[in-house]
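User: I've been trying to design a sequence by hand for this structure and keep getting stuck. Would you show me what you'd pick, starting by listing the structure so we're on the same page?

Assistant: Good idea, let's start from the same input. This is the structure you sent:
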């Protein structure tokens, strides 16, 4: 089945940068939305950024101007460039793939920890 493999998490100082990567493999339709979600302790999982196969993007207000999402349609990969990181960005970040127009086709990665601390 579909597998999402994430990489790039780690510990950074405030103001630093990280680049998260996610590679999707398996039977994935071309019409999909790939994105990044995050969940901090005691909080609900929230959308950070997403990008459709046509290149449409959406960002959480809290990361606009700091994070950039991109994808490679041929390789089914999605990256999240995170700049000017803040302590509030600390969370487990999850890669997500949603197959458009097909019910129950929503896949998640295992999550990668991002910690922003001095």
């Amino acid at each position: 089945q579909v597998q999402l493999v994430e990489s790039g998490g780690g510990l950074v100082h405030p103001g630093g940068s990280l680049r998260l990567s996610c590679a999707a493999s398996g039977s994935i339709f071309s019409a999909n939305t790939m994105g990044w979600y995050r969940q901090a302790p005691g909080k609900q999982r929230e959308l950070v950024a997403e990008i459709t196969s046509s290149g449409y993007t959406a960002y959480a207000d809290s990361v606009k101007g700091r994070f950039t999402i991109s994808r490679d349609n041929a390789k089914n990969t999605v990256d999240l460039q995170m700049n000017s990181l803040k302590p509030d960005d600390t969370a487990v970040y999850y890669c997500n793939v949603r197959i458009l127009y097909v019910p129950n086709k929503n896949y998640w990665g295992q999550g990668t920890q991002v910690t922003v601390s001095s």
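That's my pick for every position. To get oriented when you compare it with your attempt: The first strand starts at residue 3 and ends at 7. Residues 62 and 100 are 26 Å apart (CA to CA).
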